[in-house]
């Protein structure tokens, strides 16, 4: 029986990129769930790590991962339906763990599309515990016009804004300031831009943009300081941000939200975002 060959992806390899696109298409034809390889994230320099699994020269599986902090590896994987339960994912994961351990990563987060039962079974077989579900949302309508002059302004964060960013994010999301500071340092790539929301020369909020490519922007870490919540500031800031991204020629604007956060879900819909997919997340560790 032929053995599997696991190799690192070369981000600018046209041959590998074409093979990944074909694998996505094959999965889409054979699955009721559309699996995504997150090609935008793995086909750029300094993007997510990616491993490819071949059998007899044919790509049958892919695993990508990135570290959102200093200890957690976030995993996304796709396996050709005809090669599932045959060791493809386990071979990919073993190799990924070898790459993660020297970086101090000891926790894993598996992303599974809603409705993909093989993915759920795999996560459970690895003793991973269900963590949360998130909607992926995409802007489908133009943001409403902001009254001029706006009651709020956005500006690119400067080095001296770091302490506000740490405090604001920590208070909004319930993480420690130490973890939050490490997270910002870990995700300080050129593709990310941090914006501070100001009202009357006072910093009141934070939002980060990850530029996936020339036309796609992902909004994340969007938060308002507790003292200023409930004043419609978040909706105004989001409208300003969307208009700003449109001016920068982004045509595909995305974000994600926990499915149980009805307040945030309604906010994003009010500005023109709609749900296009749902993902479930499972937490595990490096011990297989």
UniProtKB/TrEMBL annotation:
Residues 7-142, 152-288 form the N-acetyltransferase domain. It comes from Paenibacillus amylolyticus. GO terms for molecular function: acyltransferase activity, transferring groups other than amino-acyl groups. This is N-acetyltransferase, GCN5. It holds the Pfam family Acetyltransf_1. Keywords: Acyltransferase, Transferase. InterPro entries: Acyl_CoA_acyltransferase, Bact_Acetyltransf, GNAT_dom. The keyword Transferase applies.
């Amino acid at each position: 029986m032929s053995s599997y060959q696991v190799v690192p992806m070369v981000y600018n390899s046209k041959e590998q990129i074409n093979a990944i696109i074909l694998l996505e298409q094959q999965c889409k034809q054979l699955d009721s769930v559309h699996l995504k390889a997150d090609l935008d994230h793995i086909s750029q320099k300094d993007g997510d790590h990616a491993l490819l699994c071949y059998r007899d020269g044919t790509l049958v599986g892919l695993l990508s991962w990135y570290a959102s902090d200093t200890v957690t590896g976030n995993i996304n994987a796709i396996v050709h339906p005809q090669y599932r339960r045959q060791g493809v994912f386990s071979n990919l994961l073993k190799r990924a763990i070898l790459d993660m351990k020297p970086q101090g990563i000891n926790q894993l987060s598996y992303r599974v599309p809603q409705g993909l039962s093989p993915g759920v079974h795999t996560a459970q077989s690895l003793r991973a515990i269900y963590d949360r579900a998130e909607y992926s949302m995409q802007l489908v309508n133009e943001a409403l016009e902001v009254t001029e002059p706006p009651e709020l302004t956005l500006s690119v964060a400067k080095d001296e804004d770091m302490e506000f960013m740490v405090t604001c994010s920590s208070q909004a999301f319930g993480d420690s300031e130490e973890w939050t500071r490490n997270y910002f340092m870990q995700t300080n790539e050129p593709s990310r831009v941090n914006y501070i929301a100001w009202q009357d020369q006072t910093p009141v909020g934070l939002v980060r943009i990850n530029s996936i490519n020339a036309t796609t922007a992902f909004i994340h870490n969007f938060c308002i300081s507790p003292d200023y919540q409930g004043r419609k500031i978040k909706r105004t800031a989001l409208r300003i941000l969307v208009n700003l991204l449109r001016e920068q020629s982004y045509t595909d604007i995305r974000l994600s939200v926990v499915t149980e956060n009805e307040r945030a879900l309604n906010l994003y819909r009010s500005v023109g975002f709609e749900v296009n997919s749902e993902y479930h997340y499972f937490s595990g560790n490096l011990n297989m």
